[in-house]
Amino acid sequence: MQEKTIMSEEDVRRALIRIAHEIIERNQGVQDVVLIGMRTRGVPLARRLATNLGEFEGAEVPVGELDITLYRDDLELRRPHPVVRSTNIPVNLNDKRIVLVDDVLYTGRSVRAAIDEVIDFGRPRLVQLAVLIDRGHRELPIRPDYIGKNVPTSRDEEVRVRLKETDGEDRVVIIRPAG
Amino acid sequence: MKRKDILDLDDFTPEEISEVLETADAMKEILSRPIKKVPALRGKTVVNLFYEASTRTRISFELAAKNLSADVVNVATSASSVVKGESLVDTIKTLQALGADIIVIRHPQSGAPYLVAQHLEGSVINAGDGWHAHPTQALLDLYTIRENLGTIAGLSIVIVGDILHSRVARSNIWGMTKMGAELTLCGPETLLPVLDRTGSTNAFPEVRVEHNLDKAIEGADVIMALRLQKERQRGGLLPSLREYIQLYQLTKERVARAKPGALVMHPGPMNEGIEIAPEVAHGSQSVIEEQVTNGVAVRMALLHLLSGDGGDKA
After folding, report:
1. SS3 category, B274
2. pLDDT for the residue A172
3. Which of A95, A114, B1, B171 could bridge B305 with an S-S bond, Cβ 3.0-4.6 Å?
């Protein structure tokens, strides 16, 4: 196994600043914007983006937490099931501009589940997607609106996002099988 | 959770109980949503097979399964081939052939769910068997206690009433002691089980027995009253209903002897004015209605956790 750093702490910080600016630009401010982090690492990323948006726009952007376990299309294949954690959506989502936030975008199935779940909470005006890493290999027609870094990968590689809140450091690594 | 069936809490580990309670937290959040439905059990069939009358448990299981998008079939045994003499095992084999993934069974005979579990490839949940066990009720009781008081370990809990004939009490005794509560059983001698103190592996967990309710309740964190079945008096187990009410009814004065803010619980259905005074049943310390709501969340958690098993299935 070979491990290579593809984003340092500084790279992660810059990427989140850039994404925050892009969110402001595309939505012409942060009026009605709600950030929803997908558990586990999407949640701290959403919180950091909210802090950035607060600094740049002087407005507080609500942050929700989404657990998609009960919406997965592969639950049947995963035994035992992953642990279900609570979803916490602090505001009514009707007519809001939702930005889903996740660490890595891969097949798109988690995002599909997240969109299904968000829509069960109301009818947002639109749903956008922000990811720190897009590693390709989509199995569904899903495209992110905001990308920290595009990382072309092969299927046998693994991308791991490590964050201070969950892992004690900010770093993104790619793990390649030996040989 | 690595198990095929939920038959009683006697073989649950504290970790498994905690897993159920934590999953129920997530399920309770779903119950607060505008759309109280998630697709987790889509394509699964849950059969409610009730050989005994029940309102809250059956409806609670039905809502739990529907909230998880399962297909639900309710079998009323009075309108099925059971009245033509079909055996329990044959009924189970028929339901299996019809595609049941999970069977929720209530049966007047203790042990019936164990027999079903032996003949079913899918999962069995015991929704009450005879005097023996009612594990889902005990789990929802544990959930309600933990939700209100933050913990179960170290709490002083009193169960008062007809312990001998209560499957709810029996499962709760296992669940509460496994989670570290200090349990007191209170009731007349004739309505308490003979405790197995032989030290064998099947021995009853360590509990305190107290016949005087005023003493039992002193400083308690939780008091659970059980329904008194009136036929117990006709069966000679009680001298008179009046005496029972005098000695064992949960009254305001008695509840005042417990800790301030102690929880009052009852698995229902209640005989108000017999085992519990109406002002206590509906008073500020009562969590009896919460128990009913939490029942749906806990049963959703169990259905979800069982559907994720498979390692031990035949």
Report:
1. coil
2. 98
3. B1
Handedness of CA A104, A110, A112, A117 (dihedral sign): negative
Q: Which of B22, B34, B308 sits opposite A80 (nearest CB)?
A: B308
CB contacts, 8 Å: A66 with chain B: none
Question: Quick one: closest CA in B to A66, which residue?
Answer: B26
Residues of B in contact with A84 (CB under 8 A): 23, 26-27, 301, 304
**How close A77 comes to chain B (CA, Å)?**
9
The Cα angle at residue B63 between residues B58 and B66, in degrees rounded to 5: 125
Residues facing A175 on adjacent strands = A3, A158
Q: What secondary structure does DSSP assign to B178-215, as a single string?
A: HTT-EEEEES-GGGSPPP--S--TTPPP--EEES-HHH
**Residue among B256, B195, B269, B181 nearest B226 (CA):** B269
Whats the size of chain A, residue-wise?
179
Of B184, B178, B224, B183, the closest CA to residue B8 belongs to B178
Q: Phi, psi (5° rounding) for residue B93?
A: -65, -35
ipTM exceeding cut-off 0.90 for this assembly: no
Alpha-carbon span B107 to B52, nearest angstrom? 6
